Amino acid sequence: FCLAEGLKKINPNEYCIAVFNYQPYKLQTDVVFEFCMEKNTDPAFMPVIKIYDAARRELPMQVIKEDSNVSIDCRKRIVFSCELEPLSLNRFDVSVELVPNAKKPFEQEFSVRTPYYTAEVDGQTGLLRSFCLHGKEYLQKEGFGLYVYDDNEDPWAMAPEQLTRVGEDPVPVSPARADGIFRHLRQVTVIEDGVIQKTVEALFAYGQS
Q: How much is the pTM?
């Protein structure tokens, strides 16, 4: 709190985020935080959130799903890209403006392309189908599958055989059909898509799970 004494007061209708960089050098990173803004009770309007650094420059940011499942519009989870000054408390301002509601569904595009890598998720299985870094493909087949192992109740894994393997008799977890209480969900769907991150959600089933 002593470090925060030198920060200027926030502007009306704005929020302040303080991030401490303990490293002795500048740090380029993504910051994730949640905050409660003033409740919006009019469904015809939606909040537009902007993040500014100390020089009042607007930063790349994205609204993502909150950790909770409470359906209230005043709770927001934000990720933004920034550069943190070394060994100091970095201040960022958050502004919120209500505008006419114009939400659009995410395009169901299961690939990501950057100047450095490309990644592609199979739209049927939800598994990673390709990961190419600097022109080199690192997957020969679908990766990051889910498996169930026979194991014991020891969470510390202290037995000699547990130090060299993960359980026995691995069984792959299959993609699930969206039925029952999940019938309104897609088997594979994009749930986050913005300037910072893309998240693909997939349903899998094993037994009654």
A: 0.76
